[in-house]
Recover the amino acids of this structure.
């Protein structure tokens, strides 16, 4: 079996004309890029023509008030808990048969939690 080495992304700037934005966030390059752009570019601080100055909709939310609008908690019933525990036991049994199974509708069956029909 071959050994694969995973290398981190190459450091430095991106291709010519492209920002130096890597796959993983880097606060230092973000701050440097922001500083450089503020010093060297005339950044327009107004919205383009046709854009609304404010969005008003039931779909608009802010982090500070999101919890007041939507209840993201799901209350598990005793049947849900039983199904999850059963699926976990099924998954653990499959783990002994394979190196490490992926969670799927077959390896972690939860028919009540997610309906596959």
């Amino acid at each position: 079996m071959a050994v694969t080495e995973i290398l981190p992304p190459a450091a430095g700037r991106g291709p010519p004309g492209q920002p130096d934005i890597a796959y993983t966030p880097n606060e230092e390059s973000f701050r440097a890029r922001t500083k450089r752009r503020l010093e060297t570019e005339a950044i327009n601080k107004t919205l383009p023509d046709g854009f609304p100055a404010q969005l008003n909709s039931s779909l608009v939310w802010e982090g500070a008030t999101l919890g007041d609008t939507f209840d993201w908690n799901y209350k598990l019933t005793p049947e849900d808990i039983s199904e999850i525990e059963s699926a976990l036991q099924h998954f653990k049994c499959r783990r002994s048969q394979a190196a490490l199974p992926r969670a799927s509708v077959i390896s972690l069956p939860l028919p009540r939690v997610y309906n596959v029909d």
